[in-house]
Amino acid sequence: MGSAWYKAEKCARTVFSVFWPPSADITGLAFLPRAHDDNYDPASFTGIANPAEYLLENGYYYIHSGSILNIINAIFYQAKI
User: Fold this and answer.
1) Number of domains in the chain
2) Does some domain include residue 40?
3) Burial class for 63, CB neighbours closer than 10 Å (0-12, 13-18, 19+)
4) What is the mean pLDDT of each run of 10 residues along the chain (81 residues)?
């Protein structure tokens, strides 16, 4: 999502990233955990460093919530900005 290609394809369209439990809350994670179905990379593989910071630095806001009302309110708020 931070690559020039993706940003060019996205243009001015808004992207909302919603993480619904049981997905990991990426806030404060040092590395994105290896996917449970990753059968190709070694067990020592670590994903992207500081995934929350990566999204924010590239202009993407995200929400992780088990409450659909919180998610709707967050999308509504971000859509108004």
Assistant:
1) 1
2) no
3) buried
4) 90 84 89 86 88 92 91 88 70
Residue 38 in any domain: the answer is: no
- Give the domain extent around 66: 4-33+45-80
Q: Are 74 and 66 in contact (CB under 8 A)?
A: no
Burial pattern 5-29, b for ≥16 Cβ within 10 A else e, equals: eeeeeeeeeeeeeeeeeeeeebeeb
Residue 39 lies in a domain: no
52 part of a folded domain = yes
56: its two tokens: 């924010």
Q: Determine the Cα–Cα distance for residues 31 and 46; give it in Å rounded to an integer.
A: 6
pTM: predicted TM-score of the whole model, two decimal places:
0.74
